[in-house]
Amino acid sequence: MTRSVTVVVALVTPALLADARDPFQHDVDPAELPPDDACAARDVALCRLSLDELRLLGVVDGGDGPRAMVVGPNQRGTTLRRGMYVGRPDVMRTPQGMHRAFWRVARIEPGSTRLGAEGEAVERGAAVVFERVDPMQREGAPVERRVVASRGG
After folding, report:
1. In this predicted model, what pLDDT tens digit does every residue of 94-146 receive, in sequence order?
2. Burial call 100-136: b when 16+ CB within 10 Å, e when fewer
3. Euclidean distance between the first and final Cα of the chain, in Å?
4. Which of 21, 44, 55, 145 suits a disulfide with 39, CB 3.0-4.6 Å?
């Protein structure tokens, strides 16, 4: 008895890849979005930048609460406080239509050093924690993102 084996070879060409959908891109038509003054109406700092583009330089813990200094790709510094809206909002498609979810500074965590179990110094870097409400789960916990200070700037 002879068995037949079928081998399928797929040739992936640049032309085929050009038509492929990037799973990390939103399938959102910009014409469906609310106007850009949504950022201005909410007083959003650094509205054109993604949180991924921000770098935390440091945290000052003082009189009226901690403040964080962040820089974007343009190397301009911006001071953040708890409660501020920051960065480009996430765009989501909900059953009610298009929705922008704005990121807000939930807390600013100054860096600290403590003793570990073996008596060694354990350092925790400063961080800014951003949160946004998921429009599909308003009662659920907010989504959080952290920007942590990196060593050496």
Report:
1. 777 777 888 999 999 888 777 888 888 877 788 999 998 776 666 767 888 88
2. bbbbbbbbbbeeeeeeeeeeeeeeeebbbbbebebee
3. 70
4. 44
- Structural domain span for residue 110: 45-148
Q: How far apart are CA 113 and CA 116, in angstroms?
A: 9
Number of domains into which the chain is organized = 1
pTM for the whole thing?
0.67
CA distance linking residue 108 with residue 127, whole number of Å? 6
CA distance 113 to 138: 36
Give 18: exposed, middle or buried? Use CB within 10 Å, 0-12, 13-18, 19+.
exposed
Residue 141: give its domain's CATH number.
2.30.30
Residue 116, both tokens: 């570990």
